[in-house]
Write a structure and sequence with these properties.
heterotrimer, A alpha+beta (253), B alpha+beta (353), C mainly alpha (125), A: 253 residues, alpha+beta, OB fold (Dihydrolipoamide Acetyltransferase, E2P), 2 domains, B: 353 residues, five-stranded antiparallel sheet, three-stranded antiparallel sheet, 11 helices, 48% helix, 13% strand
Chain lengths: 253, 353, 125
Amino acid sequence: MSEKKAPFFVGYLGIPKALKGFLLKLSILIFAGFVAGAVLAGATQDDPGEAGFRFDYGRQTVTGVLETKPYPLLYVTEGNERIKAGHTMMLSGQGKTPIMANLSQLEGNEVKVSGIILKRGDLDMLQVAGGQRGIEDLSKQGTIPKSEPLGKWKLQGEICDGKCLAGAMNPGRGLAHKACANLCLLADIPPVFVSSNPIEGQEFLLVAGPDGGPFPRELYNYVGQFLELETDIERRGDLLVLKINPSKITVIK
Amino acid sequence: MSVKYIPVQWNNNKWKYNAVMLASVFAYLWLFIFVTPDLMSNEGRINGQVHNARAFGSCAFLMLSVILCIGPLARLDKRFLPLLYNRRHFGVITAFVAITHAGYILNWYFAFSPSNKYEALLFSNTSYGQLSGFPFEVFGIFALFCLVILAATSHDFWLKFLTPRIWKRIHYLIYAAYIAVVAHVSFGILQDQQNHTFTLIFIVVAGIVAILHLMAALHERKHGDPFPSISDDWVKVCETSEMQEGFAKIAQLTQKERVAVFLHEGKLSAISNACAHQNGPLGEGKIIRCLVTCPWHGFQYDVTNGSSPAPFTEKVPTYNLKLEGTSILVNRNANAPGTFVEPLPMETMGVAK
Amino acid sequence: MDQAQAIFFAFQVWCNIGAIIALVFLTIGIDRIDEDAQGAYVFRLLLIPGILLVWPLVLWRWFILETKRDVWKNRHQPPRHAHFWVAIIFAITIPAVIIIGLSVRQTWPTNFEPQKLSLLQEQSQ
């Protein structure tokens, strides 16, 4: 019956002498546990990699031909120091909003586009400034470069939203980020496939729907997962575009 | 307490308790948020909002785990009972830390969009048909609702208003909440993290919580209060030789009802084992200055009538006792709370047949 | 999106009803059913969030207490017997959830080289 002799703690009275040492040790243990937990969990987070908005470049203005299918692309004709002529630039609106409501009216036109660059390695995107400052229609029909088919490929990798991946968010991919990626895709932000290894020298490919239109909502289930795809790839300017084939998607183990 | 309600009752031990708890929480958040970014040798920098969300989220997980360990630890070793005493404050702070985590997530991943961020949280990912890529956010939302409900109903008013029985049932939500948190983490960050340190910490901590509950449940089954067989109204509790001055013997009368028989100044008295406050086990307490004192929060009762001393007005039911030889028998029909029962002298055991 | 809107709207309606009930309960009801609340006002603010969330329970208990239907025995019969199985299920579910979570975890295909399946380009040359 040693239990009966055990110290008895009553909250509003003093702490029994026999318990003081125990409780002190326990308090130190709990405190130490929290300290160790913070340092271990905090300092071992994955590296999101070097990427982000290049505000340091300042706002960039270039001219090119606009294509809106599957996603807004600019074939740069008059570039600048940062964005060279001949580059195919993916475009996005501010935050998670589309660039403008009736962008498709400008399809094939020469436009002057102004915005901030996002960059991760070879991947870049231009966040177009809001309103009139962002896109100026030069009211001149331009020439969209002919796309060059590269054949059918088997690839492994992940579908992300191109904007977060390019550095709008760090980390900007993976399953914990999936809901955010979907919300971006709904705002007409170009989805990007990250390939396990480069294809024709490129690691990032723009993803189009099976009909060459936008990536369909039914396939959002695959966003953020590691996939194996069999897909047609084409080159548009210097950008690779894959046309997703819903019957040829497998989730890899 | 049956004096006027006040927002929060304080005493010396609660201050000390909260000091240790808050120091631990602040140390965690401060180290995670301000110190660890410089400890990482990463190429890229994690966004502040994500970093903070992780700090608060992991802190809430750790706090919830500690809170959940207190119950089983106190059942396995009574020395842990002081941790139980002010557990509610710990829980309320945990709810606030969890809300902060949710706030960072909502105002980052679900902001910058023309959609309402709360709606965006619900419609952005609807892959409910798959495990990998499952909208793990819903586990977090569920857990957060549980934590907020528990925190919001933690004032003593709710205990008295809802009755401890319903209050306890609501507080069973903590188990569902913890499982939801485990799922939230398992189907969220654990899917992505390449460095396994956090995964390991998470598994160890959640594992401790699971094992302690298992141990406490088995301990309770083995060493729990006896369940005497009941044939008529009189139920045998124990032998007189087992009684100890100032302490009680407990017996289960039904699955829900337990009686505590105390020996005080050589006389026997029986009251309900369930404290009027939070249904703490009075029979595991002891008599201090002539009053039965609950081991959980120190509520006190006169053992002869189950009433708290003035100005308090809590009352627990009493029971009638008799002796048969050396056996102590209790009448299983409880008297209304506060009913006086003449204490039964133990010396009569020699006289009784 | 419509469902999300509906859920969020329903939640707002729920909390608004709760707010009305909180107002009535905390100004009129509480004094009638709990003598300890009489003359105590500051603590009532702390009850508001709880009432917003669990107002049906508040209405039900208010009705029980107001109509003197409260059974004193119930106040001393905690649901302890459920605890054994709750604890067992709890202790089993935790590792089960973690194991399922880790079992669907994917590994990045670092070594996979993209393969060209058709020779479309060569054919066209």
